[in-house]
Amino acid sequence: MTQAHPIRLLLIDDHPLVRDGLRARFDASPxxxxxxxxxxxxxxxxxxxxxxxxxxxxxxxxRGTNGIELTAQFREQFPHIAxxxxxxxxxxxxxxxxxxxxxxxxxxKDAPAHEIVAAIERVARGDSYYSAAIATRVVQASTSHxxxxxxxxxxxxILSRIARGLANKQIATEMDLSVxxxxxxxxxxKRKLGIEGxxxxxxxxxxxxx
Length: 210
Hints:
Blueprint: E1 7-12, H1 16-27, E2 32-38, H2 41-51, E3 55-58, H3 67-77, E4 82-87, H4 92-101, E5 105-108, H5 113-124, E6 129-130, H6 132-142, H7 153-163, H8 168-175, H9 179-193, H10 198-207
Parallel strand pairs: 1-2, 1-3, 3-4, 4-5, 5-6
Helix pairs in contact: 3-4, 4-6, 7-9, 7-10, 8-9
């Protein structure tokens, strides 16, 4: 069924090839119109102002401000723009964090093109949409409360780098953060996990395959 007006999309992903692939998919649909692209948070906020999209299709893993943090900024600055997360991560905690930040849906990047289009159309109408695999993981996670579930996506990213033996300054450089921010995240990770020393922290990350 064709919309009276195409859904105006803003593609936010730090990989140009991914954006090119998405645009090629959506150009085949008369219901969708890509009005802007962005590879980082600053570009996304600028494009949101200038291109007036109905929906932002948002990746999570980006340098600097990640997609969940950016979703929260969209909710604050552009509450009229719906956010749909399109990610390779099927982790239930990522989904919970995204929903808390204001996302209306979460679909996996390896989903068929028709499912991604359907997700966009539903979210643009004001409904929500979650890939079946995501919904299953969220239900499973709701019955267990492992310590790692308390970590935010950003804290998981930092913990994975701690597991690689990176120092705070190296992590800050790699993630485009300040050293103080990394130090704060490290303290929060230890507090949430009930861990004191560096060796314990690395052991935990390795055991949880971070």
